[in-house]
């Protein structure tokens, strides 16, 4: 009885995970091999037909391309801005008051919810908004076929860089000062100290944060949906919005399940890379 006692403690959590995670995933995978489930009372198995339909859909190709652009640009910008601002906040040149003020300003975007960020930037990028007023233009940033995707990418960069900044700042504060003093004695320049001391010390954090950000950003839905809805004419369509539209606009739940499974596989690949990195780091 005592040997079984620990299992009783973890049983509620295991059951909850099974009901809320395993069961839905298994059902969605099963739906992806049937004809239009939910809308059809007696769905039949269609094998890989749904996967062929989705993988040959031009809108799906556009969604994949947009997601890659959105994700890669966002992650690179998050890393660069996060490292830049973290280095600034770790600089001994700033006084305590200035440091507190800058930290408050830089972390501000991370405090807003996605809904607030979407509404805020829709107002700022409105043809009659502040951005056009300052630039002296009348551009419809979120409706322009050439500017909509860069605009939502910029919004995501603005909203996400503080997470990198805080994590990298913690890493910078953990770098031993003796390493920088030894590098100075050896005559290393600022750039040499940065590339040979700072970056190697931050490498584990950078890799972990990059993998996590790739997973999170590739699954971004709320920001896209509340700013452009995937439009205009699918120029900001992402895998997440494509899946949502298949289910709740076209009522093609089987195709939506198929797109969700494909997205799940891609996310699992990134997840496996993250777990392997964590194990290697430990």
UniProtKB/TrEMBL annotation:
It comes from the Bacteria. The keyword Oxidoreductase does not apply. The chain crosses the membrane at residues 7-33, 68-89, 101-125, 145-164, 211-233, 253-275. It is a multi-pass membrane protein. It is found in: Cell membrane. Residues 64-274 form the ABC transmembrane type-1 domain. Belongs to the binding-protein-dependent transport system permease family. This is Carbohydrate ABC transporter permease. It comes from Populibacterium corticicola.
């Amino acid at each position: 009885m005592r040997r079984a006692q620990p299992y009783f403690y973890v049983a509620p959590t295991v059951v909850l995970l099974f009901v809320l995670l395993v069961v839905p995933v298994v059902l969605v995978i099963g739906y992806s091999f049937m004809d239009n489930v939910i809308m059809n009372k007696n769905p039949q198995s269609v094998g890989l037909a749904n996967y062929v339909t989705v993988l040959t859909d031009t809108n799906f190709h556009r969604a994949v391309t947009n997601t890659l652009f959105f994700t890669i640009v966002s992650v690179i910008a998050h890393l660069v801005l996060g490292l830049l601002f973290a280095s600034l906040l770790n600089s001994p040149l700033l006084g305590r008051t200035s440091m507190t003020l800058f930290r408050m300003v830089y972390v501000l975007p991370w405090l807003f919810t996605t809904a607030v960020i979407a509404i805020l930037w829709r107002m700022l990028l409105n043809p009659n908004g502040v951005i056009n007023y300052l630039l002296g233009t009348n551009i419809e940033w979120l409706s322009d076929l050439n500017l909509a995707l860069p605009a939502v990418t910029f919004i995501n960069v603005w909203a996400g860089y503080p997470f990198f900044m805080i994590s990298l700042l913690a890493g910078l504060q953990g770098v031993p000062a003796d390493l920088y003093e030894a590098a100075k004695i050896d005559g290393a320049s600022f750039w040499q100290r940065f590339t040979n001391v700072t970056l190697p010390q931050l490498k584990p954090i950078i890799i972990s944060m990059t993998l996590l950000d790739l997973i999170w950003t590739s699954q971004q839905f709320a920001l896209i949906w509340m700013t452009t809805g995937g439009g205009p004419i699918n120029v900001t369509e992402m895998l997440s919005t494509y899946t949502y539209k298949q289910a709740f606009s076209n009522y093609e739940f089987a195709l939506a399940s198929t797109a969700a499974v494909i997205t799940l596989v891609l996310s699992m690949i990134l997840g496996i890379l993250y777990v392997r990195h964590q194990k290697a780091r430990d």
